[in-house]
């Protein structure tokens, strides 16, 4: 018997759950404890293998301090047959990596808006010297953190 593949919307919601959890610096275990479930269940939610019920999604939103709508933001389509833009996948992949979380935290810690703008300009200039399309094909692509 062939294993059923996860629904695209469940995968998207799970990815948003993982993104927010990592931004807050929560482990899967600490979120699981707050929900009264196992960390394996949180893993299944994040991968889209298990669907999150409405009441549980509401509780997760409270714990992660976001509105329920956060889990559906930027979803290209409600149809599971439509692929989200590749650009969104790349951003999510980066933001859920150790480097993405660390860079985001460090950037947010910079209080001077002029310094932020200069850092952003520097980053853009470095990025234009090495286009993203070429980087995607390299073997050094950032992989999402496990756990």
From TrEMBL:
Cite the Pfam families for this sequence: HTH_3
Which GO MF term does the entry hold, naming one? DNA binding
| Domain called HTH cro/C1-type: residue spans | 17-71
Q: Where is the composition biased (Basic and acidic residues)?
A: 133-147
> What InterPro entries does the record point to?
Cro/C1-type_HTH, Lambda_DNA-bd_dom_sf, Rad_response_metalloprotease
> SUPFAM superfamilies given for it?
lambda repressor-like DNA-binding domains
Q: Where is this region: Disordered?
A: 126-147
SMART domains given in the database record: HTH_XRE (SM00530)
What name goes with this protein? Transcriptional regulator with XRE-family HTH domain
């Amino acid at each position: 018997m062939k294993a059923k593949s996860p629904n695209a919307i469940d995968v998207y919601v799970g990815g948003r759950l993982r993104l927010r959890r990592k931004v807050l610096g929560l482990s899967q275990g600490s979120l699981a404890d707050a929900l009264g479930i196992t960390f394996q269940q949180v893993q299944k939610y994040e991968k889209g293998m298990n669907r999150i019920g409405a009441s549980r999604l509401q509780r997760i939103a409270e714990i992660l301090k976001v509105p329920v709508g956060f889990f559906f933001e930027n979803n290209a389509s409600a149809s599971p047959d439509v692929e989200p833009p590749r650009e969104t996948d790349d951003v999510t992949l980066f933001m859920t990596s150790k480097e993405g979380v660390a860079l985001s935290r460090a950037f947010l810690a910079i209080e001077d808006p002029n310094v932020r703008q200069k850092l952003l300009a520097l980053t853009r200039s470095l990025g234009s010297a090495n286009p993203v399309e070429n980087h995607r094909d390299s073997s050094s692509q950032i992989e999402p953190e496990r756990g």
